[in-house]
What does this fold into?
Amino acid sequence: MAQVSDFLVIGSGVAGLSFALRAAEVGTVIILTKKERADSNTNYAQGGIASVFASDDSFDLHIKDTLTAGVGLCHTDAVNLIVREAPERVRELEKWGASFNHWEEKGHPFDLGREGGHSRNRIVHAMDRTGMVLEHALLDKVRNHPNIQILENHSAVEFVTEHHLMGGGKTQEDEIHCWGVYALDGKTGEVEVYLSKVTLLASGGAGQVYLHTTNPPIATGDGIAMAYRAEAEIANLEFMQFHPTALYHPDGDSFLISEAVRGFGGILRTKDGEAFMKKFHEQADLAPRDIVARAIDTQMKISGEDCVYLDVTHLDAEEVQKRFPQINEKLLSLKIDMTKEPIPVVPAAHYMCGGVLTDLDGHSTLKGLYVTGEAACTGLHGANRLASNSLLEALVFSKSAYENTVHYLKNNQIELPAIPPWNDEGTFNQEEWVLISHDRREIQRLMWDYVGIVRSDERLQRAGKRIDLIAEQIEMFYKKTKVTPALLELRNIAIVASLIIRAALFRKESRGLHHTTDYPKRDDAHWLGDTVIHGDNIELRPLLSSSAR
Ligand SMILES: Cc1cc2nc3c(=O)[nH]c(=O)nc-3n(C[C@H](O)[C@H](O)[C@H](O)COP(=O)(O)OP(=O)(O)OC[C@H]3O[C@@H](n4cnc5c(N)ncnc54)[C@H](O)[C@@H]3O)c2cc1C
It folds into this structure.
């Protein structure tokens, strides 16, 4: 029996939860989340939320910084929207129970941090635990809402579309509709149907496609792979942001050392103590992330060292401990005292700027499917994300999506079709689970070695051939095997990896986060547009505003 709700939400990070809270005011909401409810990238965000509050700041400056980071590919209407709505969304979060640091004696209502690429202090934060504070405030509100049901350990498998109707085929208008998802209950092992007139995909990013990542294990790009399989348009996947400073430690699990540490005065040094960032950019340690990540990569290649060092030992020890309690605590647990010794750091995959293509209302190219947060490509980030713009993007676009869904439901007579149950005929419980962990590791290593911070055609082609072969084998295994969460993730990681490679091979220039030694320069004459993948087709879509799509 299918479960039906007015709104179906995939994911319980900031994008999904903030949408659900609004939607629950007008209808019933089911949230499917694949692990425990707080397992999300949101919960790990440290730095904060960018918003104009300071008297020396302005919307124009925040817009300019965002456009500069995006290197010509931002959609200006998306940028305008999020920058101008930011203060209202931040104040709303406080009303919803998230408490941020205030610093009234300096004349600012908020204690505003500074991060790379920002020309002013504008990062609203809750110490270095902004994401956790936000996630728990939203979860508390959701928990008390009678119209919201959260189902943990439920992994969305596929969108329900015309492809699943008896006989398949498209509708008369030749448009694809989304009517919900098939989802795996991780406890029972059963795949069930969840139907809804509106589905919000808020499944987050894809850092787990790479060997080193700051993302938690949930970030396997499921939503992007599902949308691709359902024939939605996917954009700009070549722009994966590598965070310059993840902790380098065998037990560190790619723990992020926030950019705010450099904003606070931290300096990147070689093992010999040289402050090398001055050689690479006039803003030195506060240069945009892609430049810092590439500089560290270059520095490590020159020195042959496995890491570089982030030094805060010259700063007031008490202030450092007070400002970065979570980082300090984590480092102390690994016997590193950041107030006395430099922190070993390496770059790691951090944020997917591309995703499922949406318009300014968060609507994808499938009817009834909205996408917000890191799974979406809204046009905001262009070729590189400005630090701390992403929690904000999720909040603003989830609100726009909610407003549009209300309009969509009012103006469309939508009949939910009869959907057949999941068909797992001919599948078996396999015992070859070692294949899954091995394939996952192999893809992650290939992506790290060949599709990382610095790319070339040869490396990309080599990676592409291998990933295609692995993906084909996984698909064969998938067809004859009862689905499990690990198998679903592996299949999705393989698909997203191959899409990233396709996009990276397609863009024959270097811009923002995509850097290739074969085309080392930015080429506005030929490449000023979005890389859009639709099935087997890939094209450069000239830059339009998001509202014009
Ligand atoms: C270490 C770290 C620090 C960061 N710091 C900042 C910062 O300071 N400022 C900032 O703006 N951004 C920051 N970011 C980025 C930001 O946290 C994310 O972009 C943002 O939280 C994404 O929110 P989301 O709701 O889209 O996805 P997430 O928060 O990742 O939530 C995704 C949800 O979808 C669920 N899900 C995934 N697949 C499925 C499936 N198949 N079925 C069901 N559920 C599924 C997950 O379990 C999860 O609940 C940081 C990210 C990391 C990793």
